[in-house]
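Researcher: Go.
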Amino acid sequence: MIEDYEEFTDIQRAILDKYVTSTKSNVFALKNLPEVIKGALFSKYSRSSLGLRSLLLKEFVGEESSCFDSIASEVVVDGQKDSIQKAQSFYDRILDGYGDDSIGELGGAHLAIENISMLAAKVIEDCRIGGSPLEKSTRYIYFDQKRNGEFLFYREPVLMTSAFKEEYIRICNHLFEVYGALIPELTEVMEEKFPKEPTVSKIAYGAAIRAKVLDCLRGLLPTSSLTNMGFFGNGRFCEGLLQKLQCEQLVELQEIGKNAATELMKVIPSFVRRAEGGHRHFIAMQQFKEKMRNKLSSFGKEYRSLVDDKRSVQLIGYDPDSIYAVAGALLFPHTNSSLYELEKKLAVLPKEEVEEILEGAAFARENRRHKSPRALERASFTFEITADFGSYRDLQRHRILTQDRQLLTCDLGYYIPEELKGTGMEKRYCDALDLAKTVYDRISKEFPEEAQYVVPMAYNIRWYFHINLRSLQWLTELRSTPQGHPSYRKVAQEMAAQVFEVMPEYKRFFQFVDFEGHDLGRLGQEIRNAQKVGLT
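Model: Structure:
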């Protein structure tokens, strides 16, 4: 656990003690703050290089316009402590005594988890239902900063006590050095290629150029890079997260799980008590996961050398007759017929008539935020995707789907941004990634899980998505927008295109997938952001 990585005066600590569960630990919870401040604080968190406590002091406590004192005074007063204690006893009795899990969704907590690796952040975000995560952005924040003369990456304990210690530190430092050295060079190239128009504000233009540069270079960052994240989760989510983390193999994940359990016990003890190390529910869960992991790992050894399909996106599963299920579900709430009979009737109609029903759910959409009916969830698709970890990092956050990934490796090649190709920067970029593979190959022979921390974000990872039509509509329309990263835009575009190829009847539901290329796609969004806050 990292302690005292932020410097606070005694006065600041006294203030913070009112609002956070710890002023020293890198894992802490918020307390005594109304929801309006928690939400505003977390919304600023992903675009700031400050820790959450420093941000709270600077942007809220110390900012007169925030009216912090008057808002924060609307918290629990001493006279309510008795009723709170009674409520907590009730939750203890129901949750722990009777195991009514649904009760766990009636309360929750905001938790900040700072100075953790990007690898750990992905594991946390993989807990989908009941939690809303927010992570530090590689697009807005420079990651080449140092603390006490050292780049900010996770010193993995197993590797730091192994023969690979010096090699691990050396390659991580090198990746950060190349990343930092290329920023000013690529910025100059981008400014020459995309000169500022007189009507565009300096702030919007600068933000767009910075986003473009950092998007191109993020592939150099190792997954050991330290990031900050926060989430709000209901009690059921928090319990599941704590159990998951403490059952993981990596030391970092286990430590985060233990520290998070300590802090959450201070604010929602009734909801997370079953995730404590000695609780019978946790012990049973730990035994179950260990037995399952050992069994499946032994089976997996027999299937390691199957032929690899080189396509980056491959639609490997769908139901060609799903249009009848979707059309039937669209009609169902508007009739008094059974769904079974509707689907039987539709299956013998001319396809043109069925498509007219589908069109009835699509023709009125005017933008991607007009969400289609749930009937679209009757159709589902399974994709296998091979793309850079940076793309996975963005796409993985979509919660309404089933997904899983393999271990990070350097075996599937890496992504080279178009902006670097044919320039002197390309060789330095590729040389750094090639060197990382050499180190990874050596470490992974002995420590395959810990070796993931060496892998730069540009390297490809293989994963799958099992996703319904409605969720696919949202994902592809959102992730193909001009401001998206080029690598994940291509994944989203290809997913939509492959569905159109096998199920052209569904194309009508994807009106707002953007198949165009955009050289400086973030500029329009940054101009709108600048105008909203009056920075023109």
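Model: The mean pLDDT is 88.
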